[in-house]
Specification:
Structural class: alpha+beta
Order of helices and strands: EEEHHEHEHEEEEH
Distance between the termini: 22 Å
Low-confidence stretches: none
Radius of gyration: 14 Å
Strand order of the largest sheet: 2-1-5-4-3-8-9
Largest sheet: 7 strands, mixed
Number of strands: 9
Number of helices: 5
Shape: globular
Length: 149
């Protein structure tokens, strides 16, 4: 996985609306990128809704939140609409981001790990958090780090 001090990978992915989004466009402000295994699963839904419910606190701290999974942009669109998510979901169907961020896999390589990265304004990793089955911890810890920047 990327470690503290590593740079934000230069990568572009398609969002829930089918638009190509470059991660480098978010430099200049704190950024939270969370990787999750699959849309519409219990823990992944709880994680997305946790970021949604705390999104205003992230925005007040000047941060942006982005979720990334291998699901299609169409699947992301449904999740964004059904769960009323105010942030971007990016589709990594070709596993480009998984490779660039060096995300480990679970269950014999079948499922990507749940990992959250916090980047500072310069695009450097300031915190990495991995908890595969505890989505709430990702939000609590990430918000604490963002508020300390």
């Amino acid at each position: 996985m990327l470690n503290k001090g590593d740079s934000l990978p230069e990568i572009s992915l398609v969002n829930q609306d089918g638009n190509l989004i470059s991660l480098n466009d978010f430099k200049g402000r704190p950024l939270v990128i969370y990787f999750y295994p699959k849309n519409n699963t219990r823990v992944c839904t709880a994680q997305a809704c946790g970021f949604r419910d705390n999104y205003e606190q992230f925005k007040e701290a000047g941060a942006e939140v982005i979720g990334i999974s291998q699901d299609s942009s169409e699947s992301h669109k449904k999740v964004v609409n059904n769960r009323k998510l105010p942030f971007i979901l990016l589709s990594d169907s070709k596993k480009e981001a998984l490779k660039a961020f060096k995300i480990p896999s679970l269950f014999f390589g079948l499922i990507p790990a749940r990992v959250t990265f916090v980047f500072d304004k310069s695009g450097k990793v300031v915190h990495v958090f991995r908890a595969d089955f505890n989505a709430d911890k990702h939000i609590e810890e990430t918000l604490s780090i963002i508020n300390s920047l």
